[in-house]
What we know:
Layout: H1 5-9, H2 14-35, H3 45-56, E1 61-62, H4 63-70, H5 74-86, E2 90-95, E3 98-106, H6 108-133, H7 139-152, H8 155-170, E4 173-176, H9 182-196, H10 201-208, H11 210-213, E5 220-226, E6 230-241, E7 244-252, H12 261-275, E8 280-285, H13 290-298, E9 301-303, H14 305-311, E10 320-324
Parallel strand pairs: 7-8
Antiparallel strand pairs: 1-3, 2-3, 4-5, 5-6, 6-7, 8-10, 9-10
Amino acid sequence: xxxxxxxxxxxxxxxxxxxxxxxxxxxxxxxxxxxxxxxxxxxxxxxxxxxxxxxxxxxxxxxxxxxxxxxxxxxxxxxxxxxxxxxxxxxxxxxxxxxxxxxxxxxxxxxxxxxxxxxxxxxxxxxxxxxxxxxxxxxxxxxxxxxxxxxxxxxxxxxxxxxxxxxxxxxxxxxxxxxxxxxxxxxxxxxxxxxxxxxxxxxxxxxxxxxxxxxxxxxxxxxxxxxxxxxxxxxxxxxxxxxxxxxxxxxxxxxxxxxxxxxxxxxxxxxxxxxxxxxxxxxxxxxxxxxxxxxxxxxxxxxxxxxxxxxxxxxxxxxxxxxxxxxxxxx
Length: 331
């Protein structure tokens, strides 16, 4: 069976996928109208339904208003109107109160055609609901949410944002520990700990003298450097003995949030882990750090009760312990 290449492209081909589905729906609608001897183009449906709704409410509808209500450009709507007018299904008249305004109305033939189609529309509605909900989802509601998100921020705007992010991330360099950089280790970590928790004695000891507590005991510290922002992130690899290390003191300055510095640091650490011969890598955190926990889970960390029992008591704020399972197959 031939594979669908759009599956490989996923959301990257969302526009093409929606266009393809739209074409399938319109083609299927044409088959339905043909099946039931309805001489109408499916693309006229929304305009005729709108005119019927306004007709029943005894309201008038201009071309501009119809364009806005249907989300169509005026040239596209004008083309539909011309086609429907040629079929004598609608008429276009001048507004008696404003001669510049063109009003759309169903003709008697148009009203009769709509009346004939309504039972079919009801059946199509039920069939469409089946399609949208068959796989325990609600595609139509999801589509509404997609449109809402699109209105909030366009694909172009979001793309610009990520292009900018990618450009900035590409320039981030990872630097190894240097005593001249030690003050960044303290500043960065104090910022996030003070923001969310209370600085504990163990924090103060490690942050004030990382050389003695981490580096001299066989651990490592890395810094993330941005070309214009300088040192913006840091993390440590604390040797706990018996080839066991703790990933700790990972922090990013507020000024660099959104650049995925934490993820870049974590990827570097995990690359180093694979290079070094260690048995266990774990981390301790708090459930409040939801974004960080999600990042850890995404990169191969799992929650571990044994780690919690063995090391969790080191911090009063610790209520989550995780272990990196990427080492399991090599131990």
